[in-house]
Write a structure and sequence with these properties.
The protein starts with about 35 loop residues before the first strand and ends with a helix. Strands 1, 2, 3, 4, 5 and 6 form a six-stranded parallel beta sheet that branches. The chain contains seven helices and six strands; from the N terminus they run βαβαβαβαββααα. The relative contact order is 0.16. Helix content is about 40%, strand content about 10%. Helix 1 packs across helix 5. By secondary structure, the protein is of the alpha/beta class.
Length: about 240
């Protein structure tokens, strides 16, 4: 195939021309959207856990199937083999999911070690399988004092690194101890309404992208790399 005029560095046979037709969903989409939720605290009265469960109820009302990972007893990254039951559980949930919600307290201006440890256990690739790539993501945080966005900003950075589609909306709940009752249920407020907004948006974006993620995340650079490796394998056989 001849080169593309003015684009001599591009391999024409590897250049995909996006169309609306190529964005048609693939596979059986009759099941409810699958959402995995992670929270970043082990405390008995954990406001990030309370907020996660509250958001999970909202997602279920929209029609999602929700699973919440319990980070208790998840070892630190690198301290145990990847066959550890909690590591296997987390990775299987990631593979099952079509969207995720990450919620962490703010500690020393950043996410907690509990939150980061969960994300660090999720590999970018497991052979040909990518547990996080192409999933939608919503980010939330709880604050002990005044409202901050340090945590959600960091979670966005991590979501981008994990090649996830992080939705525009987000939730930051200040003085979280005032926003939840003794039973751990969130009180009515503008902060609660924002959580509804975020879950609604996540649900919509998950419906839009599921069944399309393989195409949406297919990249020229990776196709080119695979082609070069295939040529190398052929040359080695000569």
């Amino acid at each position: 195939m001849s080169k593309i005029p003015n684009l001599p560095n591009i391999q024409p046979e590897l250049m995909d021309m996006p169309t609306v037709e190529k964005l048609a969903p693939v596979g059986d989409m009759n099941h409810p959207p699958r959402i995995l939720m992670l929270y970043g605290s082990l405390r008995e009265r954990s406001f990030s856990r309370f907020l996660t469960y509250e958001a999970g109820r909202i997602l279920e009302q929209f029609g999602a199937e929700v699973k919440i990972f319990d980070p208790m007893e998840l070892p630190m990254v690198g301290s145990v083999p990847e066959t550890h039951p909690k590591v296997v559980e987390l990775r299987e949930l990631c593979l099952w999911s079509e969207g995720q919600v990450w919620c962490s307290p703010e500690r020393h201006g950043a996410i907690t070690a509990v939150m980061k440890n969960q994300i660090d256990w999720i590999p970018l690739e497991m052979g040909a399988i990518r547990p996080s790539q192409g999933r939608t993501l919503a980010v939330m945080q709880v604050c002990g004092g005044s409202q901050s966005f340090n945590v959600v900003n960091t979670l966005r950075l991590l979501g981008r690194w994990m090649r996830m589609f992080t939705i525009p909306n987000q939730s930051s709940v200040p003085m979280a101890y005032k926003e939840f009752d003794d039973e751990g249920r969130m009180r009515p407020s503008a902060y609660y309404d924002r959580v509804v907004d975020v879950m609604e948006e996540l649900f919509k974006f998950t419906l839009l992208t599921r069944g399309r993620t393989d195409y949406l995340t297919d990249r020229y650079s990776e196709r080119n790399e695979r082609a070069l490796k295939a040529i190398d394998r052929q040359l080695q056989k000569i």
